[in-house]
Every structure is written in structure tokens, then in C-alpha cells.
Design a protein that fits this description.
Length: 257
């Protein structure tokens, strides 16, 4: 917590809004998507999806995947507790919706389904997209699969697997948007990034959750930004965005979001 608080102060001192952003690509993304303050009709669905989870007192036997994806512990949790503690917040779900509507990604990959709050928001942003989401706890994966069916979200495939195994089978695919939202450890994150780099095209965006979760995650983020294939990077503190657009000069942005 202390690490994150210190880093947040540094972020506030360094970060800016759209002013002084000279790249039209980034300027448009910030003004038309990050800062879009319209009340989109889909927000109601996003809030209702989360609300239903928060009210759900049913219990799930959860398998926690820890370091090296070993099973750390198993425990029973209510859906409501999980939605409160580990689920994407409403603010971020709305932003995911806007990102999906803005970039219109055909193929989306998510590492870390959990209760599907992010998956649902991404799907609403581009209902015609194909979404693959990976979850290492079978009971959670089953719960979300059924929940997506209940919400008539036909475009989502839930893969029950450890990330490592699943991405080996997916690395020859092409993804326009990848959301890395599980197993926040340096080496694992770098491995997922390097493996999935093969799936990126010129217009792909990779979004890394919790880049200030720990010193290790920040080190991973710093290393990812330096990769020769990465041109634009945007640090919004809670998420790190990277782009591969060859037409852009390599530039790092720190944006309040
Ligand atoms: C922070 S939650 C994802 C939150 C979700 N995206 C949302 O919108 O609410 C991370 C999820 O990743 C799963 N996970 C963590 N490490 C994993 C691994 N190595 N392989 C597969 N799943 C993993 C956890 O079981 C957990 O459900």
C-alpha cells in the first residue's frame, strides 16, 4: 500500500490531461474516449450487471492461483464478496466499454475472467466482436459462462485453463485488444506479453491492469514499454496501454484518467 501511495504521488506530479499531447492519435483517444462524459445507454446494463453480482449471495468454491500458478488455497466465497473485492469497478467497466466502442476490436482476449464484469463491458462496446476470456478457477469459469448465457452474450468464449497453457494454444491467433487482468507478477506478466506479442497487429492495443500493484509489476511495465515493437505507451496509473503503430514515433504518455 505504501509503495502504491508513493507511486501515486509521483504519478500526479508527472501526469497531464490532453493539453500538451501533440500526437493526434493519443489526443483523440484521450478526448474522445478517456474523457468522453456522455451518459451512454449501455452504462445502465453495466451497472445492472454488477448490481446483480453484488446482490448474489450464492457461494462458489474458489481455487486461488498464486505464484507460478500453483494452487494457493481453496475457499468458499459469495459472489457478492468477490464482486466487491476483486471485480472491475463501475468506472473502469465504463471505460472498457468506451475503449471497445472506440477501437471496435474484432478479436478480444482477456486474461482473468472472474465474474465477467470487464468481459461484459467489452462485449457491450462491440457486440459483433469475438471475445475469448481465460479463467483458471473452474467454478468461477462455469459461473461466468452461465451468466453470459443468461445475458444473451453469444460472442464470448470462456476458457477454463491456466493462462500459460491457454496462451500457448492461442498465440497464432490475431487479437486487436488484449486485457491482462490476472496474476500480477513480474515474470508471469512479461511471459504473457512476450507470448502474445505474436498475436498483435499494427492497430492492436494491450492493456495491463495494476501496473503499480508492486515494484515487480512496475518493473514489468517499464520493460514492456522499452520493447522495440512498442511505439506508444500510456500510463494512467491503474492501467498501462501499449500500441504497436509503426506510423508513430516511440513516445510515453502519463495521462490522468
Ligand atoms: C482480478 S481478477 C479478474 C477481474 C475481471 N477481469 C473483472 O472484470 O472483474 C483475476 C482472475 O484471474 C484468475 N487467475 C489468476 N491467475 C491465473 C492464472 N495463472 N491462470 C488462469 N487464471 C488466473 C483468477 O482466478 C481471477 O479470477
Amino acid at each position: 500500500m505504501l509503495y502504491q501511495a508513493k507511486q501515486y504521488i509521483k504519478f500526479l506530479l508527472k501526469s497531464k490531461n490532453q493539453h500538451g499531447v501533440h500526437s493526434p492519435f493519443v489526443y483523440n483517444l484521450v478526448t474522445l474516449c478517456f474523457y468522453d462524459s456522455k451518459k451512454h445507454a449501455a452504462y445502465k446494463n453495466i451497472l445492472n450487471y454488477k448490481k446483480a453480482l453484488l446482490q448474489d449471495q450464492s457461494k462458489i468454491q474458489v481455487t486461488d492461483l498464486g505464484a507460478g500458478s500453483q494452487v494457493m488455497k481453496q475457499e468458499e466465497r459469495t459472489v457478492s464478496q468477490m464482486a466487491k473485492n476483486a471485480g472491475t469497478t463501475n468506472k473502469r467497466a465504463k471505460l472498457l466499454y468506451r475503449l471497445s466502442a472506440y477501437f471496435k476490436p474484432e478479436n478480444i482476449l482477456e486474461l482473468g475472467t472472474s465474474l465477467g464484469i470487464a468481459t461484459h463491458a467489452l462485449s457491450l462496446g462491440k457486440p459483433e466482436s469475438t471475445i475469448t476470456t481465460i479463467e483458471g478457477c473452474n467454478n468461477i469459469a462455469e459461473f461466468s459462462k452461465n451468466n453470459f448465457k443468461k445475458h444473451n452474450l453469444e460472442n464470448i468464449e470462456v476458457i477454463y485453463s491456466d493462462f500459460n497453457e491457454a496462451i500457448e494454444n492461442l498465440k497464432s491467433n490475431s487479437y486487436n485488444l488484449i486485457f491482462f487482468d490476472g496474476n500480477h507478477q513480474k515474470e508471469a506478466t512479461l511471459h504473457y506479453f512476450e507470448t502474445l506479442l505474436q498475436t498483435a497487429n499494427n492497430d492492436s492495443v494491450f492493456i495491463f491492469d495494476d501496473i503499480y500493484w508492486s515494484e515487480g509489476m512496475t518493473e514489468a511495465w517499464e520493460q514492456i514499454k522499452k520493447h522495440p515493437k512498442v511505439t506508444v505507451s500510456i500510463n494512467t496509473f491503474f492501467w498501462g496501454f501499449i500500441f504497436f503503430r509503426k506510423e508513430q514515433v516511440k513516445e510515453d504518455f502519463v495521462i490522468r484518467c
